[in-house]
Amino acid sequence: MWTHQQLPQLVPPHTLFHSYSPSNHTKVPSFAKVNSTHNTKIRNGIRKSTIPLEELPPNALRRKMEADWIGGFSLGVDLGMARTGLALSKGFVVRPLTVLELRGQKLEVQIMNIAEKEEADEFIIGLPKSSDGKETTQSNIIRTVAGRLAVRAAERGWRVYLQDEHGTTADAINRMVDMGLSLSTRQKKLDAYAATLLLERYFSTSGQKTELVLPKNLELQGKLRKGPPRDEDFYSDED
Predict the structure, then answer these.
(1) Where in the sequence is the domain holding 221, given as residue range(s)?
(2) DSSP run (H or E) holding 193
(3) E strand or H helix at 151
(4) pTM
(5) Residues in domain YqgF/RNase H-like (predicted)?
(6) CATH number at residue 188
């Protein structure tokens, strides 16, 4: 998260970007059969094509809509100017993963490599907002990075979503202090814990407050609808 708060003895003086239980609900159609009708919305004077969240639901929402659905690992991403924190959710367990000190294309490639290694099929990226819920200049920067990552992800049928991250850094600091982590550990792992809080917020709302980042390319949109390759570890031949 971008934050202008002073964090004495906790983080170095660089600016940061920062930042359910299943129930019985009617199943949604498979990705290949959903309605492909697009909506449009206007952001910063530009009309953009969108897909309803129910058409390409994030994993947390799909779990709520399909109680017997299994699969779908989520990678939380807390983008920063110098450091980017990652957290991972497999099943109902969310944990801090790592902190990357990369930027630009190298960062995006490394995030994709980690997602492949951890078998994640969606990215939950923190979107900076002000305390009153409004987007900022930093929000636009994050949207740009998320857009580039969405293009890479869509090639594999992976989805990218934006989630409000306001307050996750402060919550992460408090959690690490409560855990009794040393100052040096808190400094090293702050971004990863902020990504963890981001994922927890995402799951607490069943993914219903996320925003799908949609590539402009229609072929890539088709790959998103098709989804990632079938993981035979989760499905039997009879499914």
Answers:
(1) 68-226
(2) helix 183-204
(3) helix 137-154
(4) 0.79
(5) 72-172
(6) 3.30.420.140
